[in-house]
Amino acid sequence: MTPHPTLASLGWTPEFQRQIDPSELETLTPARVTGVHRARLSVLTEDGAAELTLPPDLPAGDVAVGDWVLADPATGRAARLLDRHSRIFRRAAGDASREQLIVANVDAVFITTSCSEEFNEARLERYLALCHAGGVPPVFVLTKIDRCEDPDAYMDRLRAIGPKVPAVAVNAKSADAVGALGPWCGPGQTVAFLGMSGVGKSTLASALTGLALETGEVREDDMKGHHTTTAREMLAIPGGGWLIDTPGMRELRLTDMAEGIDEAFAEIAGLAADCRFRDCTHGPEPGCAVQAAVKAGQIDAGRVERWKKLRSEDAEHTASALDRKRKGKSLSKLVKQAKRIKRGG
Ligand SMILES: Nc1nc2c(ncn2[C@@H]2O[C@H](COP(=O)(O)OP(=O)(O)OP(=O)(O)O)[C@@H](O)[C@H]2O)c(=O)[nH]1
Ligand SMILES: [Zn+2]
Predict the structure, then answer these.
(1) The complex's ipTM?
(2) Which of 94, 135, 233, 248 is most deeply packed, by most CB within 10 A?
């Protein structure tokens, strides 16, 4: 039988403690969300796994795996949602101003890529932007180094797009892989994987958790039997941490992401502040600090082009979503008017 977890081992920190009044703890219990269902949450508390109902003012869409709630054991309800320190989100369909939460309270995201044709700067920069937008520290994980002549060349390319992002190189199938990810998977730490299909995420996730995850399934038995600390979407890492592996995380598409772009391209965004014109397109106009830096060989021209492309895509995305929203509003106005006319009002 697995011993019951402590709050700290579940990822509870002083940051969450500060959000609650000590008197609240007389009746309420902190609980980590391990599954979000239509009207119900699966959680882990110091007493083990439990199911909570949702209060009317807390829709399931506002809660994500990884969140902390205060549970009321008397009613079996989630009484209150605590502020999260990080999240992965995408834009809600049709409304770019609304966030659709994917996961919450993640301490590190492993942006996973391999030493192969799949390696793509533009895509990795998008993943970085997604992490920055949600306040999640990224870590680069380069896989398949055993199949490559010169993994260092790939490491150099990673350093070029994220000089401050920690990077590790592994053979995901070797016994050392778990140790390489260890620094981010200590007690109470929560991690998740991002990356294209086939780069080795499942291989690494299986190695970390000791579960056979290749099939994307965890047997029902494991839920009821001995592994009471293991939920399907938040998996215990022996020796401490937690791996969040939700369908939402797996299905995250790169076109969904927003913001975080200027942080992923900090050195370029910083220069743009020095352009002569405030609305500089960083193209042919005079006094462009970005183009000047390219000419001086201080920044990479390809990277500037990718930055511009991401920013224009982002602007387009936001504009079209706003447009749809406006159209939706005017349509509902028309419908209301029509109803009024019908009623003779
Ligand atoms: N030689 C070698 N093979 C690897 C490495 N990482 C992954 N593989 C193999 O590559 C294939 C795909 O790995 P997965 O772990 O399933 O990749 P994934 O990212 O989970 O892919 P999806 O499940 O489709 O998202 C498997 O056959 C792995 O055994 C590595 O570092 N070295
Ligand atoms: Zn400029």
Answers:
(1) 0.95
(2) 233
